[in-house]
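QA checklist item 7 of 12: single-chain prediction sanity check.
[x] sequence parsed
[x] length recorded as 119
[x] structure emitted
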Amino acid sequence: MRALVVAHDRRVLEHVGHVVSDQGFECTQCLDGQSAWDLIEAGEIFDLMVAQMMLPWKDGWELSQIRESGGFLANVLLTQQWHMITDFEQFGQVRFSALPVNEWHLIMQIAKAIQLTGE
């Protein structure tokens, strides 16, 4: 399975990339939303996207909506705003995890996101 990890903070990008890779995903990493968008526009297909909510050019929420057109099967957005996690839980297919990254919580959210897709 393939995953796209998008974070503007290089330390977050590398840390999340390792966590996602350890879960068996082949990881592609981008430092901004536009680079991630360009990959999707070029026809790259990913099973999972883990992205920071706040990104330069295109934010994580915009990227998560690509799922509607077949871009991703599962999405996990990372945010420093805990209230966003509860505010956005109604969106179902998108899971949220807090920054700084708690590996166990991120792994659980990835599993839930994949489970929601029925894969």
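[x] summary fact logged: The chain is about 40% helix and 25% strand.
[ ] second reviewer sign-off
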